[in-house]
Specification:
By secondary structure, the protein is mostly helical. It has helices spanning 3-16, 22-26, 28-36, 41-54, 59-71, 82-85, 90-104, 119-128, 131-140, 142-155, 159-172. This is Nitrate reductase molybdenum cofactor assembly chaperone.
């Protein structure tokens, strides 16, 4: 899968994981068309499964489901550092570190009240920043994304398919080559 397709897939995931609104509800067909362009059948299928399960749902139901799924569940919270740190002081340093990564890449957070560890924001960053900066940040929090996915599977939530697509995309990200260190045996 090409890097630009990976980034487009991450942008779609970001859109699907944001609080649903009228524009979202009216864009399902267009979003499905965009998903079809990604070039990987398993990712396309994951996005189609999400769209199929949500496209005939009223906006009110979508909103209720979103709030129930993400706002009331500690295990499904989209703030990826929350499950580990909660409201503890140590979380502030982690959030500051993520924000520094955004700033270093020239990414400006919209002033919408979201914290830097909000998964849709991280996905948006990964879709518009340099490929390495974005995917490295997501890889850093892959275990948290896996944990959220597991909870969504247990709930049989349609959002499980979006998280599955993210995890499939992350599996396709090439591991950066590191120079082998020379070992001397004395």
């Amino acid at each position: 899968m090409k890097n630009e397709n990976i980034q487009e897939g991450l942008m779609l995931a970001s859109i699907f994981l944001q609080y649903p609104d009228e524009m979202f509800a009216n864009s399902m067909e267009e979003l499905q068309t965009e998903a079809n362009k990604l070039g990987d059948e398993s990712i396309i299928t994951s996005f189609h499964n999400f769209i199929d399960q949500t496209s005939n749902t009223s906006l009110e139901e979508l909103c209720q489901n979103y709030v129930y799924t993400f706002d009331f569940g500690r295990g499904t919270n989209l703030y990826v550092t929350y499950a580990e740190h909660g409201e503890q002081r140590g979380r502030g340093a982690v959030l500051a570190n993520i924000k520094k990564k955004y700033e270093a890449a020239g990414f400006e957070m919209k002033n919408n009240g979201e914290l830097p560890d909000y998964l849709p924001l991280m996905l948006e960053f990964a879709s518009v920043s340099s490929f390495e900066a974005g995917t490295d940040l997501l890889k850093e929090y892959e275990s948290q994304i896996i944990a959220i996915h597991k909870q969504l599977l247990e709930m049989n939530s349609p959002y499980q398919f979006v998280l599955q697509a993210i995890l499939t995309i992350l599996e396709m990200v090439p591991v950066p080559e590191t120079p082998k260190e020379a070992h001397s045996h004395g």
